[in-house]
Each structure stands twice: as C-alpha cells, then as structure tokens.
Amino acid sequence: MSLPVVAAALMVVLAFFLTRVVNWVWIKPKKLESYLRRQGLPGTPYTPLVGDVKRNVNMLMEARSKPITLTDDITPRLLPLALKMFNSHGRTFFIWLGPVPTIMITNPEHIKEVFSKVYDFEKNASFPLVKLLVGGLASYKGDKWARHRRIINPAFHLEKIKNMVPAFYHCCSEVVGKWDKLVLDKGLSCEVDVWPWLVSMTADVISHAAFGSSYREGQRIFELQGELSSLIAQELKKPYIPGLSFFPTKNNKRMKAIDKEIDIILRGMVSKREAGEAEHNDLLGILLASSSEESGGSGMSIEEVMRECKLFYFAGQETTSVLLVWTMILLSHHQDWQERAREEVRQILGDNINAKPDIDSLNNLKVMTMIFYEVLRLYPPVAELRRTVNKEMKLGEITLPAGVRVYIPTALVHRDPDLWGEDAGEFKPERFKDGISKATKNQVCYLPFGWGLRICIGQNFSLLEAKMAMALILQRFSFELSPSYVHSPQIVMTTRPQFGAHLILHKL
Ligand code: HEM
C-alpha cells in the first residue's frame, strides 16, 4: 500500500475517533442539557468532560476541613453539591457526573416509581473497577438479574439464616471476650477504637456464613478485598476516562493481582466441595447446589457462584460494620437509649451472660430494632442509590431522555424536615415505635436497604447479626465517647468514621 493511501486511511480512522470523542464530551451532553432545561428543570452548568466532579470534590474538602459535632447535619460531608442544589432549587434538579446529566430525585412518589420499574430504571453499568467488588446480583439487569435473584433468594430465607445464628454468636462472643480481656488488663475501664474490631468481626461472620468450616480461607479473601476497596476508592477520586483501568499503572496491576488471588482461593474452595466435602448450610453450599445438574441447567455457573461470593463479602461485611459502629457511637452520645437497650436485653435474655441468644429472643429485641432503624436513617451506610435511563421515560411531570442517570440521595432524603418533621436531624428512635410505615406516613422516603424488588437481599441477615453483636456488648459493657473521639463521617464506598471510633468501655 502506498504512503498516501496509508495516510488517508489513518486520517479517516482519526476523524472517526475524534467525532466520537466530540460527541461524547460536548454534543451529546449539550443536547441532553437543553432537553432538560426546556422542561424547566434546574441544573448546574456543564463543564466539559469533568462536569461537577471537581466542584463536588472542592466542596467535600471544604466541608471536611471544619470539625462537626454529633448533633450536626452530616449531609454537607457526604453529598455537599446535592444538598446545596436541594436548598436552592427544590426537590428535583440535575448535576453532572462527568459528561452525564444526573437527575436527583427526592420526591417520595418519584422514588417509588423509579424503584418499582426495575426493568426501566436499571442499575448503572458499574465502572469496571467497582465490578471487582460489587459484581454479581447487585450489578445485573433484566432477566439475568431476575434469574439470579430467584436462585439466591432461598439462601436468605429466615429458615436458612436461623442456621447461621450459632456462627453469629461464635464470632461476636470472640470479640467481646477479647474486649473483656483488654478492659480487665487495665482495671475496669479502657479506651478502645472499636472500629477495626467491628470490621474484623463482621468479616468473620460473613466468612463463617458463606464458607462454613472453610472460613479461614475466607478470611484471606476479606483482607484482599479490604486492600482492593481502598485502591478502588483512590481511583474513583480521579476523573473518569474510559479505558484508563486497562493501563498497566501500579494500582491497576495490584488490583488485577488481588482479583486473581481471590479467584484462586474461591476456586480451591469450590473444587474441595466438588470433591465431596459437601456442606449445604453455608451460602457457598446453597449456591453450588443451585448450580448442580438437579436444577435442570437453569442454575448458576461456577464463575457466577464465585462472583456472588465476592459480592456477599463486600455487601455483607462493609455495610454491617458501618451500622454497628454508628450504633455504638450514637448510643455513647445518648446514654438514655443505651440504658433502655441494655434493660431490654436483660429482660429478654436474662442475667446469664453465657446463655446463647437464639433467633426468637433476638427477634424480640424491639427497642434495639428501633435504634437500628434510627441509626440507619441518620447514617445510611449506602448514602445514595443510582439508576440509569436507557430509553425515554416519564417521571411525574418530567420526561427523562435516554442517556441520563437518576440518583436518589438517601442521606439527604432521610433528613428532610418536610418528610420527617422539624426534628428530622435528631436521634429519636421512638419515631419507629410503630414500625417503618407509620414513621414514614407510608411514603417511600426510608431507603437504607433500597426499596422494591431490588431491596437488599441480606437485610434480615445483617439485622440479626447486628442484634447479636449489640446484645453481647450491652450485657458486658457500658460505653461512652473518649475525649480523643473525632466525629468525621465520610463516604469511602460506604459512610465510615474517618478517624475510627474511640470509646471508653466500662466492664459491668
Ligand atoms: C446494614 C447492612 C446492609 C445495608 C445498609 C445494605 C444496603 C443495601 C442497599 C441500599 C441495597 C440496594 C442497592 C440498590 O438498590 O441500588 C442492597 C442490595 C444488596 N445487598 Fe445489602 N445491605 C446490607 C447488608 C447486606 C448483607 C449482609 C448482604 C449479604 C450477605 C447484602 C447483599 C446485598 C445484595 C446481594 C444486594 C443486591 C440485591 C439485588 O440487586 O437484587 N447486603 N443492600
């Protein structure tokens, strides 16, 4: 081929890519923007490529530079731009996630519609990196999601979770036993940063629940996922450029190596099971049974089972540790509620601290349930939920064009005085004394576990685990905030305490 022909071919290829880039960065965003603005929807101005990412990061940095107290609103530290727009523009507006207009939905009727139409408002295509942690059921769409949900649902039925209660007890009592020792070594009180302990306790629980007697190999997966999660959090702070995750940077290489190591461990576990070490009561056993021939070929492949196990690790561990840590922090601040919760534990479980709580006694802890609901309202572990619009959709009065996204800022909705009353920012577990529907006046405005068909599959699992942990803790210790505690909630995948949770434990 002659040189001019090669040059011409290269020019055509270059022009093709250039047109696509210009369309992605400028033409499409501007078209979507004018479509939304024509309907009177307020929104931030578009900054090519980065959108509001930089603005949001600057606001986050500013919010984090100021110390806050336990009675302050945490939304400026979690979703600063959404809060600012909400205060100045009302319930529905759009901001830019890179070149994609993202409509913030805070009206309960709209939220209900988005979560009801699971096939129309689909899960976002996750960033390839995030899929390493949150793949499987949580990321699937359409029929694939429905099939997996059908197969996995039975693993989380109360009958199956009941079998996991002894594992909950084993893991939680191991941690409180170690706290006992720490405190006794110092006399009767001791300062402990409970955060890392709660993280490893919930990891231990999910290791036992997912992998039964092979839980030790599961613990290595947890360590690796912890590292993966911090590397991903670092990457997500950078502006999103498609394809960048394929570049052999130091972080990318490490993330791939971790993913590979996790796969090797999981595959080893699966092979052992296939070689006859059958266990049917743990999550892996239940999922493998569904992938066997008995299911008539409609079960999951081994790869799919492995993907779900990785997801359970992340979804089950991270969120529950966060629920527990904010519960301990808020009960340290609200000693009256700590005492009420302890009194209830004594009434239901009796005075024998060595008695093992069973599922019925845990289910009878009503004050504790109210406390957890209130903690999840004020400190939702998942601070916002996301959906994508792939075809033109009506949402109330608005027409959403294909290509936009929809965000539900849970942390903001949970503290909205118009929905929850003037005391929305206060810790008042009694608002849940007659259940969630009374507290929300039957509006869809309480979303710690999502809502609708895609609601969290593990909510009963995590609430039971959290009840076990808190019951054992309350039986043995009273606790208060240490003078060294710094209140600093921040989103690192979930809503975490930036500087841990330094509490003073007193032996009872
Ligand atoms: C306090 C604890 C937990 C919280 C706050 C929580 C929160 C959530 C939320 C908000 C969603 C919905 C996401 C969306 O609609 O986009 C979700 C989904 C999910 N959660 Fe949880 N979760 C918790 C515990 C667990 C546990 C213990 C497991 C498993 C062991 C789990 C597994 C899942 C799965 C598989 C999904 C995806 C469900 C689907 O798309 O059909 N979660 N969770």
TrEMBL record:
Gene3D superfamilies: Cytochrome P450. GO terms for cellular component: membrane. GO terms for molecular function: heme binding; iron ion binding; monooxygenase activity; oxidoreductase activity, acting on paired donors, with incorporation or reduction of molecular oxygen. The chain crosses the membrane at residues 6-27. Keywords: Heme, Iron, Membrane, Metal-binding, Monooxygenase, Oxidoreductase, Transmembrane, Transmembrane helix. Heme binds at C456. It is a single-pass membrane protein. Its cofactor is heme. Pfam families: p450 (PF00067). It is found in: Membrane. InterPro entries: Cyt_P450, Cyt_P450_CS, Cyt_P450_E_grp-I, Cyt_P450_sf, Cytochrome_P450_Monooxygen. Its main location: membrane. Belongs to the cytochrome P450 family. This is Cytochrome P450. It comes from Brassica campestris (Field mustard).
